[in-house]
Amino acid sequence: MKEPVLFKNQSALILESEKLTEQFVCEAGTRSSRLTEWVMPATTPATLEQPLLAKWVLLAKEDSEVEYVFFQNLPEGARALAHLEVRAKKNAKVKLTIIQNGATHNHVELNVHLEAPGAEVEVRGVQNAIGAQKHSLTVHALHSQPHTRSDLNAWCIARDQSQIIFNGLVTIEKGAHHTEAYQKNKNLILSDKATVDSFPKLFIANDDVKCAHGSSTSTLDPNQALYLESRGISGEAAEKMLIDGFINQALNWVQDQEILNTVKKTLQLSEEVWS
Amino acid sequence: MSTLFEIQDLHVKVGDKKVLNGVNLKVNRGEVHAIMGRNGTGKTSLAYTLMGHPGYEVLSGKILLDGEDITACKPEERARKRMFLAFQYPVAIPGVSVASFLRATLKAVRGTELQPSQFRTLIKEELKRLDVPESFMTRSLNDGFSGGEKKRLETLQLRLLQPKLAILDETDSGLDIDALRVVSENLQTYRGPERGMIVITHYQRMLNYIKPDQVHVFGDGRILQSGGSELALKLEEQGYDWVEKLNEKVN
After folding, report:
1. Residue A5 has what pLDDT?
2. Residue A248 within a domain
3. Which of helix, strand or coil describes residue A250?
4. With an 8 Å Cβ cutoff, are A230 and B78 in contact?
5. CB-count exposure of residue A109 (10 Å: 0-12, 13-18, 19+)
6. Cα(B191)–Cα(B172) distance, integer angstroms
């Protein structure tokens, strides 16, 4: 694989629109880092009847590297439907973070196509649902060529009466030898009335592949809370630290500090004090 | 010397199981007390109870710090009154950096927020003392730490928070010889005329550095025998059988 020759940092693109349509192309041999924050125009009332629509495509060409954060930051009362697509060409490396924050109904469908040998796509999804919000994330990774790798991870936080659904599917087509495909879903449930449904699935039509999938669901760990409280931190502050920590596990892989700081600030996560 | 900390006839249960059966202990200012005993005799239950672990229900008895009854206080209140427990098994908290945690706990216990530059200066000094690299600060709290790293971080917290009373629950476990020396020397230098320490340990080796004023043998959820520092040496040589037999005769 050739070394990337160009570093482009196009960060903090904020789109205010009911209909977001975006295609981002990472040219061959280049490296990019980018944030799309999807917010709603202040003049538009949020309604369930008129959905907010997003169609977003990322094309990572041969030997490119791209780090992308797709950040939905939508108001209560809105219904959002996002269709996301990643196409990774030969030796392309993609790191995609999807954050679902806000909207009463928030549905994201992501299709990842590893189209050529050497393509690698890693995805981290964060679903942060509060009140009576319903969030769903459906991810499908399609391996149609040999020597490709996908790693799909979703961190879901369900509070109050919220509902979250994670659907993960990896398809490895015939002939896609030496494929590596992983899926992991971690859920944090913060209320007796909140629910998370997790469906990690694999469809493998080929030998000679490495695959793993798993899902875990928990509440806040009382031992972790006790440790923080034993250091003078109030119960409420300890709970926030633990929830922030859960989200940080998903976000801290973002290498572009400007993008990472923007996202953390918007999500009101604790500020890092040592860099 | 005036009394700093006192436990009066403390009885405690966890679920249906009684774990402490009438513990009495008085720690004066400036004193270090060692508690030794076999596994499963209630030493860690005592440590958890003293820090206010919600799973440990006090049936009767009192815990007094500076004459104030803190038996019903929450863990965070005890910490703010300057009690500190160095955990035997500090829990990992992924996603929460050591630096963020230390800043939060310093603010909570000391009641004032240090300027970032003051915080960095203070932490760097302590890291140096404990022979810990600065990269520690950006790691997740206790996550993937070796036993030695965890105990160094517990010691660092103790030094930062400057408690009146420190309870060390097997801080020497999981340490190699060099780490034991570094940790113990730092604990020893923490001793002071206004402070007290309760050191729970299985071995004499830590007490070579932190010489205790009194040693207590714990068994069946209470103190069976108390003595000076020579008692620890006797236990190292002869084990616990003689204490338990002596206690059976008394009863």
Report:
1. 29
2. no
3. helix
4. yes
5. middle
6. 17
CA proximity to A84, closest of A112, A116, A103, A61: A112
Pair B138, B122: CB distance under 8 Å: no
* Contacts with B89 (C-beta within 8 Å, 6 or more apart), sequence order: B150
Q: Where are the domains of chain B?
A: 3-91+163-250
Question: Over the stretch A209-220, which tens digit does the pLDDT of each residue have?
Answer: 999 999 999 999
Taking the Cβ of residue A241 and every Cβ of chain B, the question of whether any pair is shorter than 8 Å is answered with yes
Buried b (16+ CB within 10 A) or exposed e, A4-17: beeeeeebbeeeee
The complex scores an ipTM of: 0.95
**From CA A118, how far away is CA A136, in angstroms rounded?**
30
Strands of A30-39's sheet in order across: A6-16, A30-39, A65-74, A93-102, A120-129, A149-158, A180-189, A210-218
pLDDT at B242: 87
Give the distance from residue B158's alpha carbon to the nearest chain A alpha carbon, in angstroms.
10
**Mean pLDDT of all residues in A73-78:** 90
Among candidates A229, A270, A271 on the partner chain, residue whose Cβ is nearest the Cβ of B74: A229
pTM (whole model) above 0.95: no
What is the per-residue pLDDT for A17?
Answer: 58
Structure tokens at B94: 């992924």
B85–A230 C-beta distance less than 8 A: yes
Of the listed ranges A170-174, B97-101, B184-188, the least confidently predicted one is B184-188
Name the residue among B244, B222, B215 with its Cα closest to residue B9.
B222
Centre a 10 Å sphere on the Cβ of residue B90 and count the other Cβ atoms it contains. Answer: 19
When the candidates are 3.40.1390.10, 3.30.110.170, 3.40.50.300, 3.40.50.12780, the CATH number that belongs to B3-91+163-250 is: 3.40.50.300
Write the DSSP symbol of residue B137. Answer: G
C-alpha dihedral sign at B217, B223, B224, B229: positive
* Closest-CA distance of chain A to residue B25, Å: 22
Interchain proximity B76–A235, CB inside 8 Å = yes
A97-148 pLDDT tens trace? 999 999 999 999 999 999 999 999 999 999 999 999 999 999 999 999 999 9
Confidence of residue A89 (pLDDT cuts 50, 70, 90): very high
Return the H-helix or E-strand segment holding B93.
Answer: strand B93-97
Q: Is residue A242 part of a domain?
A: no
What integer is the mean pLDDT of B87-91? Answer: 95
Is A238 in contact with A228 (CB distance < 8 Å)? yes
Residue B164 in contact with partner chain A when CB distance is under 8 A: no
Residue-range definition of the domain harbouring residue A17? 6-220
